[in-house]
Design a protein that fits this description.
The structure holds two protein chains of two kinds. By secondary structure, chain A is α+β, with helices and mostly antiparallel strands. Chain A has five helices and six strands, in the order βααββαβααββ. Chain A is elongated and about 60 Å long. In chain B, 22% of the residues lie in helices and 35% in strands. Chain B is an alpha+beta fold. Chain B contains three helices and eight strands; from the N terminus they run ββββαααββββ. Classes of the chains: A alpha+beta, B alpha+beta. At the A-B interface, β1, α1, α2, β2 and β3 of A face β1, β2, β3, β4 and α1 of B.
């Protein structure tokens, strides 16, 4: 049955849900509730899939993606590959509130965040550094390369493009990488 | 990733996502979470949705937008969620994706593809917080 106010979120992140609900209960806006829920997960590093200190890339760096959308006005703020700023959803809200753009990315998103008063700091954690080191010792497995040489199923990079007519890597392995501890 | 959709006491709907992406991704790679219509989408007229899982696949189908359009076309949230993922399964039958859908009246539903053990999601309204687990296609 339908009930309002209400908040629903993906995965079993109950503390994030509660953070959002606590604002809805106080008659605050759904936008603020979304920021509270996502910020809570960023703080808690939910399953290492949200916030700083998780999901290192091939260079060992953690970057953040976040978006907020207002259903009434269709305003959106989004950041992608945000570097060295911990507050992904809050920076996304700042994009929505302090620019007429929709999405900022990478170092330029970082510059925007700093201009809006956010702090620049490392997003690495002991956990992410450990994940990165273990990944290297496993021969950089798994990874997301295909049709390159050396064979990405057996070797680390750097890689160069492989002639597609010469050899075509099966990418079905990619589906096995995603699970409840590794997802977008 | 967390994806969330909320409706406040004034009936205003909003959504959001936050993630650090995939482990060991190629530097510069971005998933579905920051892309409107992919990671989440809301429309005050009908409702909203948030997707999670393999962002490289989700962004090719704009699954959240599709789910909201399904609501607009008269589906209930569960039907809308399943139909949105149906677009994916025809092209990528092994993709791992979950989606939650909330209509503007506060009715909700979810669906998933290939997530071991099912797809959990959390709901809170005036009643106590409830944890749900949907079985995947």
């Amino acid at each position: 049955a339908g009930h309002i106010p209400i908040i629903i979120n993906t995965w079993a992140f109950d503390q994030a849900n509660e953070a959002g609900w606590s604002l809805l209960e106080k008659n605050e806006s759904s936008l603020n509730a979304i920021v509270a829920a996502c910020s809570k997960c960023e703080y808690l590093q939910c399953d290492h899939t949200v916030g700083w200190g998780g999901s290192p890339d091939e260079n060992g760096e953690t970057t953040l993606d976040a978006m907020i959308m207002d259903g009434v006005t269709h305003r959106i703020g989004s950041v992608a590959a945000l570097r060295q700023v911990k507050n992904g959803i809050s920076v996304a809200k700042a994009v929505m509130e302090h620019s007429s753009h929709t999405m900022l990315v990478g170092d330029q998103a970082t510059d925007f965040a700093i201009a809006m008063g956010f702090s620049k700091e490392s997003l690495s954690s002991d956990w992410s550094i450990d994940q990165f080191e273990k990944w290297k010792t496993r021969g950089c497995q798994p990874n997301y390369w295909k049709n390159v040489h050396p064979n990405p199923r057996n070797y680390c990079g750097p890689y160069k493009p492989q002639d597609l007519n010469e050899f075509h890597h099966d990418n079905k392995f990619l589906y096995k990488i995603v699970d409840r501890n590794n997802h977008d | 990733t967390i994806g969330a959709v909320a409706i406040d006491r004034q009936g205003r709907i909003a959504s959001g996502t936050s993630t650090n992406g995939m482990n060991h991704k190629i530097p510069g790679r971005v998933g579905d979470s920051p892309i409107p219509g992919a990671g989440s989408y809301v429309d005050q007229d009908v409702g909203g949705a948030a997707a999670t899982g393999d962002g490289d696949i989700i962004m090719r189908f704009l699954s959240s937008y599709q789910a909201v359009e399904n609501l607009r076309n008269g589906m209930d949230p569960i039907q809308a969620a399943n139909a949105a993922l149906g677009r994916i399964i025809r092209k990528y039958p092994k993709a791992q994706v979950g989606i939650v859908v909330l209509d503007i009246h506060g009715n909700y539903g979810a669906a998933c593809l290939n997530i071991d053990g099912g797809f959990p999601f959390i709901v809170r309204s005036w009643a106590e917080q409830s944890k749900h687990l949907v079985k995947c296609v």
